[in-house]
């Protein structure tokens, strides 16, 4: 097995392992400050070459940039909030069911109780109760539903059930 080459970083002076794919080129470690120093050194080296010194200057480059801008109007402008559409529509508040209306759920199977709910809810309840049995999940679901309805309706007599999901 080959030993990985180590090199002293030109930025911070610390020793680092060179990436085997860049042994010939890598002179800086991966620290953010050293990566920034590497970028600055690369740009300085590129600009110091005679053919690159006027790359961003002169009438020819001005015309090149003007052509590009004409082909890409508004590229540098950010679209404002007026253009953005909502990812999700606002939900209307649903009326709270009374005790009599929700009584039909007491004897139903889990499939009937949670037919419209996502599987995430079932998984969460199973995780909280440490049980994958449908009867336990259905019992906990009914208890959570009743607790939620009591909280939304302002009743406090079932608030102690929040910790007792099993």
Structural class: mainly alpha
Largest sheet: 2 strands, antiparallel
- Separate helix tally: 6
Work out the radius of gyration.
Answer: 33 Å
What is the strand and helix layout of this fold?
Layout: E1 6-8, E2 15-17, H1 32-48, H2 59-71, H3 99-102, H4 110-113, H5 119-129, H6 134-153
Antiparallel strand pairs: 1-2
Helix pairs in contact: 5-6
What does this structure look like?
This protein has a two-stranded antiparallel sheet with strand order 1-2. The protein has helices at 32-48, 59-71, 99-102, 110-113, 119-129, 134-153; strands at residues 6-8, 15-17. 42% of the residues lie in helices and 4% in strands. Helix 5 packs across helix 6 (134-153). Strand 1 (6-8) and strand 2 form a beta hairpin. With 166 residues, the protein is mainly α. The chain has six helices and two strands. The longest helix is centred in the last third of the chain and has 20 residues, at 134-153. The protein has two domains: 6-71, no CATH class; 101-163, no CATH class.
What structural keywords apply?
single chain; 166 residues; mainly alpha; two-stranded antiparallel ribbon; 6 helices; 42% helix; elongated
């Amino acid at each position: 097995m080959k030993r990985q080459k180590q090199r002293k970083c030109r930025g911070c002076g610390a020793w680092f392992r060179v990436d085997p794919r860049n042994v010939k080129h890598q002179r800086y470690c991966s620290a953010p400050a050293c990566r920034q120093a590497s970028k600055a050194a690369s740009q300085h080296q590129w600009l110091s070459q005679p053919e690159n010194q006027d790359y961003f200057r002169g009438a020819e480059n001005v015309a090149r940039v003007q052509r590009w801008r004409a082909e890409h109007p508004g590229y540098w402008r950010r679209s404002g909030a007026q253009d953005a559409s909502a990812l999700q529509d606002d939900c209307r508040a649903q009326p709270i069911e009374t005790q009599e209306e929700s009584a039909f759920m007491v004897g139903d199977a889990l499939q009937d109780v949670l037919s419209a709910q996502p599987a995430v809810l079932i998984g969460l309840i199973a995780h909280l109760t440490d049980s994958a049995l449908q009867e336990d999940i259905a019992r906990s679901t009914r208890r959570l539903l009743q607790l939620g309805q009591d909280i939304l309706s302002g009743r406090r007599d079932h608030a102690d059930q929040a910790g007792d999901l099993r």
